[in-house]
Amino acid sequence: MAYVLAVSWVAKEGYEAKIREFLQILGEASRQEPGVITYTTHVDPDNPREFFIYEKYHDLSGLEAHQETAHFKEYVLEKAIPLLESRMRRTYADF
Q: Whole-prediction pTM value?
């Protein structure tokens, strides 16, 4: 059963370029993971501080493995989250 993670981030004012940089690096690394089907990042064309990340994994173990990678820990937990005004995550499964 495939799993999808839908993530919305709002960067603190003045940090949108840094968040975009982190997401580019994170996306490139994440798409190389064996459990990842797709990993795409988006920015609101009307508000450069708002980002949407769409992640799809073959199964729950792929999602869990992603969250244990060095690039996730570095670019999400250590670098991006402190620069965010808000963060929302929703998980979905195929049926």
A: 0.94
